[in-house]
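Board work, copied verbatim: Polysaccharide biosynthesis protein
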Amino acid sequence: MHGHEFPTSPDTRICVIVGSADYGNIGDIAISEAQLAFLQDHFPGTVIDIIGMRFLEYRRALERRLTRRDVLCFQGGGNMNDLYPWFEYERCEALATFPHIRSVIMPQTIHYKDWRSPLLRYSQKVYARCTDLHIFARERRSEELMKRTYPDADVELVPDIVLTLDPSPFIEGSPIRDGITVILRSDRERSLDDQARARIEDIVRARGMQVSHTDTASSANHLTADDRRRILGDMLTTFASSQAVVTDRLHGMVFAAITETPCVVFANNNHKIQGVYQWIKDLPYIRFVDDVDELPDALNAVMGAPAAYPRERMLEHFRPLIEVLR
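↓ predict structure ↓
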């Protein structure tokens, strides 16, 4: 099963991505699309994309085909934690199967609620047996934690992979910017309480502009590749059609950056937003704030600032990842 998806020539190198998103978290969808494009650009061979929770379907074909010339990659994002344990279980299953294949964990945040977690201890045992494991952190706090937690792995710091994404192929036409879009979390990673959210709503509406609401998460599942691109395209078009965005979503901030959309961003309940913001803090049209009372002045600042995303300069930060793929 799945053997037909592999190149017929044994001389062709293979890069396999394990854990790609087929569910409705649009941030994770963007990571999947961005890392696929990045690997196709920088890996000298064939890239095979395996949807999350389907590694076992491919294991036999991979055991027949993978050699030490090949690379095993794992979905980036914020899934090195005990909030979404199934990601770590699948990653460990693949690493335990191929402990001597070059393995790359794409840019990640690590954040355990319980640092005595059995899941964390299990991952430490599996990772320690890998002889060519490279973990990429997308912010400095995670880099520090990963180096302490997985001392036998090579840990490097690079930005979030979506910061490499060219949004233009996903956006149809030339959207006209109109109004402010509010994207606030309602899940267990939120840190803004109901009072703060109501205050944000009042401040935004006081500007007298059209206000719309959306989120980067939905209940969609079992998405096809076309579904994934369409959903991401719709979201990026929403950003490209907005005069400004107010969000506490990490990829709300990142989508604003790559679509050159003025944005004010608040923290969530862990360190990932503040950490990733450090890569783009010099962009005058993106502003991180700690308090809702800062929102009026921050909106004025970002909406009056020049907006140009330095994608080629951002790509320079990914040199360590590019080198590992060669």
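The chain has two domains: 3-164+314-325, 168-310.
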